[in-house]
Amino acid sequence: MLFLWMMSLQLSAQTVQPKLTITHLTGDFYVYTTYNLYGKEYVPSNSMYLVTNKGVVMFDTPWDTTQCQPLLDSIEAHHHKKVILSISTHFHEDRTGGIDFLKAKGVKTWTSRQTYELCKQRGEPQAAFYFTKDTTFNIGNHRFQTYYPGAGHAPDNILIWFDKEKVLYGGCFIKSTEATDLGNLSDANLQEWPLSIHKVMNKFPDPKYVIPGHQDWHNNQSLQHTLKLLKEKQAAKKQ
Q1: Is 184 among the catalytic positions?
Q2: Were both Cys, which of 115, 186, 191, 192 would link to 156 (CB 3.0–4.6 Å)?
């Protein structure tokens, strides 16, 4: 009986969903992480927010949408500012799941037009606004640009570049150096992805910080690691 009780406790501990974590990156940049089930285990999903003198900008939404309100509460408590804008980097749920929540809170939600159309086709929440090409945003004292390198993890994946701080936010287009595989490939283009990676490396050759969509983000060599994983995948297919 004791053995069964201990097994039950262990199983319960394994299935407890981790909550929101927020980590300071540099300056006005913060990485926030939520968790959701992928297969049989909880997987971390990294997103980011930027504190400006006009308000807070979010890049992607929580994957665990129950953490949307705790995130907004935490931002307001720590920074005394409200979220005013969000940009989702592709159409998958771990990037767009909280869009409807943010719209209801009066946040201006943005995606690329390609992401907007894919969200519409797949029944995912759609942003209130979209851009049709690479776009520079000036929000208060900060400036950043969106960049579409071509297909990769998804047909619509974009990145966000902060030139002054040399921060590259990659979402799921970039794999963490901790990753041992390419993860969800349901909408991936394995032929185009390496070419798209090279475009990013040529356009932004010296990022100080590189934020991938999942797992650890402290090593800024994630682009190189993603390319390595793609080469390994291609080699395995040829065998």
Answers
A1: yes
A2: 115
